[in-house]
Amino acid sequence: MRFRYVDWLMLRDVKRRKLTAEYAQERMRYKALINNNILPEDLRESADMDMRKLPRDSLRWRIVDRCVITSRARGNVPRWRMSRFIFRHNADYNKLSGVTKAKW
Predict the structure, then answer these.
(1) Which residue of 19, 90, 95, 100 is surrounded by the most CB atoms within 10 Å?
(2) pLDDT (0 to 100) of residue 1
């Protein structure tokens, strides 16, 4: 039986992306309460404590941009979410739409 993800790093990144999408609205509301200077200090502190109870992996900067094919974390082309090696290979064989070789 073949696993759906290339390695455990890709699986971990997928879980983080799901958590980030799930808790984004709630985190944004807590952040607005914390940064609002008009509200009383105890309300802002309680919002801060509630925000700290959210999962750590739901933070936006915990997401690592990985290649969707090889799970490589470095040297990715952001628009296609592929590593530069896979991107070059697919572009050479016309498997990516809208990609042309540079001409000057």
Answers:
(1) 19
(2) 47
